[in-house]
Amino acid sequence: MSKQSVLIVDDEPDIRELLDITLSRMGLHTYTAATLGEAQAKVAQHQPSLCLTDMRLPDGNGISLVEYIQSDFPHIPVAMITAHGSVEAAISALKAGAFDFISKPIELDTLRKLVTSALQLEGDTRKADDAVDQDLIGSGETIQYLRRQITKLARSQAPVHIHGESGSGKEVVARLIHNNGPRASGAFVAVNCGAIPPELMESELFGHTKGSFTGASQDKIGLFQAAAGGTLFLDEVADLPLAMQVKLLRAIQEKAIRPVGANEEQATDVRLLSATHKNLAQEVEAGRFRNDLYYRINVIDLSVPSLRERKEDVPELAEALLKRIARDEGNAKPTLEKSAITALCHYDFPGNVRELENMLERALALSDGASITADDLQFSGKAPRSATARVQANEPAADSGASTAADQLDHEAAYGNLEGYLESIEKHIISKALEESRWNRTATAKLLGISFRSLRYRLKKLGLED
Predict the structure, then answer these.
(1) Per-residue pLDDT tens for 36-45?
(2) Could you count the other beta carbons within 10 Å of the beta carbon of residue 188?
(3) How many domains does the chain have?
């Protein structure tokens, strides 16, 4: 197998020589170019494993080279060398499709990490495409476009902001970006910014030293450190207090954090993904979210469609979810009757995929286990769609003694919402355990004495996952 190669593009001979020596010591073959034209010719001739280019070139700029490679050789990752503090240049490069950027003066350890990460990318994206297909169910054009975006963004280190309604699957999308990129072997650390008390926010994100405040009995690593070499997913990022937004911005710009009570900053190596169900642009206009932070985390904007925007996927999605639920509960796969599918297709799902999953879990519990009909489904709102769907489908009404979805809701209203009360207690207990475990789900499951799968089920059921 041929040795991996890197094309170094810079008009300064000293920089080219430094990079050449460093990469050669990593066992890589190198090519060099001093101009944009020379670089384009060598890309076409050698098709290197990676291109490392300066922003400013005598006959053009690095952005033009990024665009050329993205157009004709999209399998080749490009990393941009920018001037120190040149935020605009770095963001422009990432938006154009650069894998990542590194600032001058170049720190060799940072360079080695960047190169190693870039060279882990596979030129053939079919494996990633297949993996994304398995987790994003549906055949409609909307979901197919989302799949293509995820596969493309997984090959980049650019910050991505994922927006969509609650329950639409934003964390699923974030995990797919992580799992199909060069950081897949690292940790994926997810944190709900709205669930952390403001006074604990800095300590949770950046960590603290022993004795830095009352109750700090030992050193504690923060979520940035926990995600080192992997991905940090900031869910509901719009809920960050303004004071914390300033500190997060600095951490992103400097790629370094300072634990509470520490004298020195620590370098960080994370890919940042964020999400919210709110409109961040409107939050900026209202003065609740900093424009400069919005500019940094919203380098790439990715929209996750609501379930009502992809109604054609409901039957396929419902079948897949029901199969997984039945498998997790140790049941044989039940059948979704035509009446149930029709009812689901006529419902708008304000709670999106999460609501569909919860609905199927309840339906499986209410059914005889062999098949699920429209009467087994419970819909939110005043008029359950199952009855409407039966009329539209010209199906016979249920026997007078049978329990319909409307009857079930009336029954619950008559005897009080016991289920809701019990869920509120369960939610409180799990939330407290999550806080004590610093939102580490494996540790939380162990603390509660339940399996990780059971915890995941409860988080989804209680709306604590997204």
Answers:
(1) 999 999 999 9
(2) 19
(3) 4
